[in-house]
Amino acid sequence: xxxxxLDVQKLKSxxxxxxxxxxxxxxxxxxxxVVIIGPNGAGKSTLVxxxxxxxxxxxxxxxxxxxxxxxxxxxxxxxxxxGYVPQGRQVFPTLTxxxxxxxxxxxxxxxxxxxxxxxEVFKHFPILQERLNQLGGTLSGGQQQMLAIGRxxxxxxxxxxxxxxxxxxxxxxxxxxxQKVLDIRKEGCSFLIVEQNAKQAVxxxxxxxxxxxxxxxxxxxxKILKNPKIKKIYLGxxxxx
Length: 241
Ligand SMILES: Nc1ncnc2c1ncn2[C@@H]1O[C@H](COP(=O)(O)OP(=O)(O)OP(=O)(O)O)[C@@H](O)[C@H]1O
Ligand SMILES: [Mg+2]
What we know:
Helices cover 35% and strands 26% of the residues. The protein contains nine helices and ten strands. It has helices at residues 44-51, 74-79, 97-104, 111-124, 126-130, 141-153, 171-186, 198-204, 228-234, and strands spanning 6-15, 18-28, 33-37, 56-64, 67-68, 82-85, 159-163, 190-194, 207-212, 215-220. The strands form two sheets. A six-stranded mixed sheet has the order 6-7-8-3-9-10, sandwiched between helices. Strands 2-1-4-5 form a four-stranded antiparallel sheet, with helices on one face. Strand 9 (207-212) and strand 10 (215-220) form a beta hairpin. It is globular, with a radius of gyration of 18 Å. Bound molecules: adenosine-5'-triphosphate (ATP) and magnesium ion (MG). Adenosine-5'-triphosphate binds at residues 15, 18, 20, 38, 40-46, 87, 196.
């Protein structure tokens, strides 16, 4: 209980009058990779947006590192060590790789620290160093996802929120991105990952939450994917996994 890195309780949130999350409780322990699955429109992106203060919170609480951050704005949550990579990657297409990374470090004024952070990003993603002066928009899909993750690493987060990092990637690029997640976790970063592809999620996840219509339907370790209901919905229901 006392150990939770992120603790979301009875969260109700949405957009103006549209309540999307209808009382979601979930948590991430230090060092964990927690994966959220669920059908389109279930509120998966809304959950990670709420954790990053990007939509309206009506009630419930979000605690991070044992502090109530429910009312804190995004930049304060970033300063506390939360990073976010939105669905669809959204790198700045007309900025170079270097400029994209510098944007990620915008809260850091110290040049030396920025340089150090960038070196750390290159350690995980050598390809970004090779492509420093290439425009973000001209990278391959997998490279753009790496740039988007690298950009969020520039603030040295302890919790990274990744919204569908495998979307639109080839199986090979997806595997590569997931391997990077495991590498980054080894350095002590925890992850909350939204993933449509349950079959892939199971390879990464310590725990899984299934979100359905703004509520947690099922929650547990990877074994919940053996649940016939889940198998049918998320694994195509053909019984081979
Ligand atoms: N900016 C917004 N303004 C108003 N409604 C929104 C906004 N973003 C999302 N919604 C609505 O909130 C609901 C949940 O959307 P959300 O993006 O969280 O779903 P999701 O589970 O991430 O789905 P997907 O798998 O398609 O990404 C949907 O009904 C959607 O139309
Ligand atoms: Mg989404």
